[in-house]
From TrEMBL:
UniProt KW Zinc-finger keyword: no
Catalytic activity: (R)-carnitine + hexadecanoyl-CoA = O-hexadecanoyl-(R)-carnitine + CoA
Any GO molecular function: carnitine O-palmitoyltransferase activity
Organism: Canis lupus dingo (dingo)
Domain Choline/carnitine acyltransferase: start-end pairs: 170-736
Keyword terms: Acyltransferase, Fatty acid metabolism, Lipid metabolism, Membrane, Mitochondrion, Mitochondrion outer membrane, Transferase, Transmembrane, Transmembrane helix, Transport
One biological process term in Gene Ontology: carnitine metabolic process
Cellular localization per UniProt: Mitochondrion outer membrane
Family from the record: Belongs to the carnitine/choline acetyltransferase family.
Stated name of the protein: carnitine O-palmitoyltransferase
Location (main, coarse): mitochondrion
Chain ranges of the Carnitine O-palmitoyltransferase N-terminal domain: 1-47
Active site per the UniProt annotation: H467 (proton acceptor)
Length: 738
């Protein structure tokens, strides 16, 4: 989603003030550290995997195997083919050795069987032939493959069950990547510019490509993923742009329905539902996502949804993740509060949480000087380092207010104004709703938290999500669960309050007070001025299109995503009279720790279709199908690790470590994406009854434009007959004025 802006803006050799910063670490050392981080993550997951059940076997299976060996030994059968007897001869005569030898042999055999199953499943999951087959058709090899995957997957799969069996993301051939790149830019370059780019590409292949490719191959063998950790570091954590608008994205509530107008009640149910999701996440009770119901996707990004904060640094930020947190941080009318989410008996009920939020809403105390604007975030770097030192918690309890915010499960903003669709002016109200979620007032969201839950005064909800820790499908999965749970399972009483009874014994929410040095005041004022300028410059438009939707497109035997991408190409051409580089985000979670890849949707076939539409040629339908087929082939190649942009990005990073300048790679990473697009997937259809409750479907979300003169376009298929578009641009641009 918003990654397009970050991908364009990243410059690993520059600070925010333009000064050169050397990437002094040798590339081999960086590759070694990448692998070391990967292995540490694997080891940290091992104990939790053991407690929750080793896949595709569990500790009970070891007990069964041990019992079977003991039984065979009792029946004077030797399943070890003489090995156990040999070991027994070498050991002193002691009756207990028999039991120990059986346990040792059972453990070794059990481990060998599990390893074999993992390797077999990894080999099976490396097959991508099913992805290239026509939709709705399945060949005999694919049916055989699917049956084997189901057999080797075991009966009970948990969220992280497949992690040890996922293949690693392959490094594409550098020749293929350069060829695909040249093909992608041909429609938007003049003959002279394309010839020059081709010369640079050939020079790159001749002089530098093989060396850079060798380092990437080495990293792919040693680390979990050859690109994802660098993508997180250089595109996100080293970016010095303000997170607001440039990186963070938003997600909306139901478009046409607000289950209750009581702000505290909606907050109580939503927070309770989010914490229920966290409980299921900790117990790995969330089912792994299966693409097309067949192929498991990587679940690594789920680990940092909660208890996570992006900590600002001078040259780069870092992600801080806690194992647990039993409170949320709340912002209301310029004041900060710490609200506990658990009592001695467990998670607080929705009604108890509502009570706590209502106490905050009723608190008449004013905000302290500069406290109201404390959460404002300007460009990253020294000016954003509000490491505020020791503060205190209301009630005389010594503590650290900053720690209370950064150590919270997530951040909650109780807004004092309503939001959402209104009958009087539906278009303007939705646009204002989107702007409120994307930027707010610039200082009423803690943009560094993994996500901020926003509850408006009329009960409308929304999310503001920090992008570095994970991509949209992860937060979208959580948001679908939250909306479905708080409406259909938790529900509300007839008067709009949460079900149940208040708990008068609960202590008051703790007010956080901040001790702000005088030097901080100026930086807050400067950051606030920049934030207001940035938020005031963003233009958002939400457009529910209800003439037809996914069901009609499928009846035409077309991909719904490709259909919309071609429509966007046509709309952009009619708007600008020219074609542009188009960024469409797709996932690479078929591989271990995969994140995203770019689909370059502006193809030669798409341009031919658009020109035919403008000239009203009779071949429009045939050209349209060719354009859709080309887009589908690019999409499938990107998903299977054969995309263009992540490979070029990783080659560029290696060249920076080697201090090896490449004019071709410099040109690639100077391109501007004037059209950045993303589809928000609906992943848990079973949670919503779209036939009996058609209005109870998520309306998706959006992000800022990647280019100052471009558009950011997000879309979601709501049910069968509606497509909701979220479009953003800059008001300062003379090319995107409505």
């Amino acid at each position: 989603m918003a990654e397009a802006h970050q991908a364009v803006g990243f410059r690993p050799s520059l600070t925010s003030d333009g000064a050169e910063v050397e990437l002094s670490a040798p590339v081999l050392q960086e590759i070694y550290l990448s692998g070391l981080r990967s292995w540490k993550r694997h080891l940290s997951r091992f104990w939790n995997d053991f407690l929750t059940g080793v896949f595709p076997a569990s500790p009970l299976s070891w007990l069964f195997l041990f019992s079977a060996i003991q039984l065979a030994w009792f029946l004077q059968l030797d399943p070890s083919l003489g090995l156990m007897e040999k070991i027994k001869e070498l050991l002193p005569d002691w009756s207990g050795w028999c039991l120990g030898i059986s346990a040792l042999f059972a453990s070794c055999l059990w481990g060998a069987l599990i390893f074999t199953l993992h390797v077999a499943l990894r080999l099976l999951l490396s097959y991508h032939g099913w992805l290239l087959e026509p939709h709705g058709a399945m060949s005999s090899p694919t049916k055989t493959w699917l049956a084997l995957v189901r057999i080797f997957s075991g009966r009970k799969t948990m969220l992280f069950s497949y992690q040890r069996s996922l293949p690693r993301q392959p490094v594409p051939s550098v020749q293929d990547t350069v060829r695909k790149y040249l093909e992608s830019v041909r429609p938007i370059l003049s003959d002279e510019d394309f010839d020059w780019t081709s010369v640079l590409a050939q020079e790159f292949l001749r002089l530098q490509a093989s060396l850079l490719q060798w380092y990437l191959q080495l990293k792919s063998w040693w680390a979990s993923n050859y690109v994802s950790d660098w993508w997180e570091e250089f595109v996100y954590l080293r970016s010095r742009h303000s997170l607001m608008v440039n990186s963070n994205y938003y997600m909306m509530d139901f478009l046409y329905v607000t289950p209750t107008p009581v702000q505290a009640a909606r907050a109580g149910n939503a927070v309770h539902a989010l914490l229920l999701y966290r409980h299921r996440l900790n117990r790995q009770e969330i089912l792994p996502t299966l693409l097309m119901g067949m192929r498991p996707l990587c679940s690594a990004q789920y680990e940092k949804i909660f208890n996570t904060t992006r900590i600002p640094g001078i040259q780069k930020d870092h992600i801080r993740h806690l194992r647990d947190s039993r409170h949320v941080a709340v912002f209301h009318r310029g004041r900060f509060f710490r609200v506990g989410t658990h009592s001695q008996s467990g998670l607080l009920s929705p009604r108890a949480l509502e009570q706590q939020f209502q106490r905050i809403l009723d608190d008449p105390s004013p905000a302290c000087p500069q406290e109201e604007h404390l959460a404002v975030r300007g460009p990253r770097g020294p000016g954003s380092l509000k490491r505020l030192g020791k503060s205190k918690v209301c009630g005389g309890v010594d503590g650290d207010a900053l720690e209370a915010v950064e150590g919270a499960a997530f951040f909650v903003s109780l807004d004092s104004e309503p939001a959402g669709l209104t009958r009087e002016d539906p278009a303007a109200s939705l646009d204002a709703y989107a702007r409120a979620l994307l930027a707010g007032r610039g200082h009423d969201r803690w943009f560094d938290k993994s996500f901020t839950l926003i509850v408006f005064s009329n009960g409308k909800l929304g999310l503001s999500v920090e992008h570095s820790w994970a991509d949209c499908p992860i937060s979208g999965h959580m948001w679908e669960f939250t909306l479905a749970t708080e409406c259909f399972q938790l529900g509300y009483s007839a008067d709009g309050h949460c079900k149940g009874h208040p708990d008068p014994s609960l202590p008051q929410p703790q007010r956080l007070y901040w001790h702000l040095p005088e030097k901080i005041h100026l930086s807050i004022s400067l950051a606030l001025r920049g934030a207001k300028t940035l938020s005031g410059n963003i233009d958002c438009h939400v457009f529910p299109f209800s003439h037809f939707g996914k069901s009609f497109i499928k009846r035409c035997h077309l991909s719904s995503d490709s259909f919309v991408q071609m429509a966007l190409q046509l709309a952009h051409f009619r708007d600008r009279g020219q074609f542009c580089l188009t960024y469409e985000s797709t996932m690479t979670r078929l591989f271990l720790e995969g994140r995203t890849e770019t689909v370059r949707s502006c193809t030669r076939e798409a341009c031919n279709f658009v020109r035919a539409m403008e000239d009203k040629e009779k071949t429009r339908r045939a050209l349209f199908r060719l354009a859709v087929e080309k887009h589908q082939s690019l999409l499938k190649a990107a998903m299977s690790g054969q995309g263009v942009d992540r490979h070029l990005f990783a080659l560029y990073i290696v060249s920076q470590f080697l201090h090896l300048r490449s004019p071709f790679l410099d040109q690639v990473h100077s391109e501007q994406w004037q059209l950045a697009t993303s589809q928000i997937p609906v992943q848990q259809i079973h949670l919503f009854d779209v036939h009996n409750y058609p209005d109870y479907v998520s309306s998706g979300g959006g992000f800022g434009p990647a280019d100052d003169h471009g558009y950011g376009v997000s879309y979601i298929f709501m049910g069968d007959d509606t497509i909701t578009f979220h479009i953003s641009s800059k008001k300062s641009s003379t090319k995107t004025v409505r």
